[in-house]
Amino acid sequence: MAERSIENMRIWQEARVFTNDIYKMMSSCRDYGFRDQIQRATVSIMNNIAEGFESGSDSKFINFLNIARGSCSEVKSMLYLCEDFHFCTSNEREDLVTKLLSLSGGIYNLTLYLKNKKEA
User: 115 in helix, strand or coil?
Assistant: First the structure.
């Protein structure tokens, strides 16, 4: 039986990879306020998944997952600004938005699973 740990959760692993993608893209950005904001929002996705995982109850976990999905929306919005401000190309933005939508969808599916488990 697999050990229960955040490192074994696919959705957390996906959030970690996405966070690294954003940090790489923003590494040469000199707009420090903008860079800080998108990086913090991205880290928030990963950390809220982790914090919810260890929160002690499914209802608390669901709340943290909802916060993580909100951060996904913030990052998605900022990715369009990244393109507008020439921090990334249209193709790079599209690739990152696709990854982000997959991540957000996975968070949503986990939320549904926890809600259904609670009701059963």
Answer: helix
Q: How does DSSP classify residue 63? A: H
Inter-helix orientation angle 58-84/32-53, to 10°: 160
pLDDT tens by residue, 4-42: 899 999 999 999 999 999 999 999 999 999 999 999 999
pLDDT of residue 29: 95
Q: Give this prediction's pTM.
A: 0.93
CATH number for the domain harbouring residue 65:
1.20.1440.60
- CA–CA distance, 54 with 19 (Å, rounded to integer): 20
For residue 30, the SS3 value is: coil
Length of the chain: 120
Domain tally, the chain: 1
Tens of pLDDT, residues 48-74: 999 999 998 999 999 999 999 999 999
Task: Flag whether 3 is in a domain.
Answer: no
Which residue range(s) make up the domain with 76?
Answer: 9-19+30-119
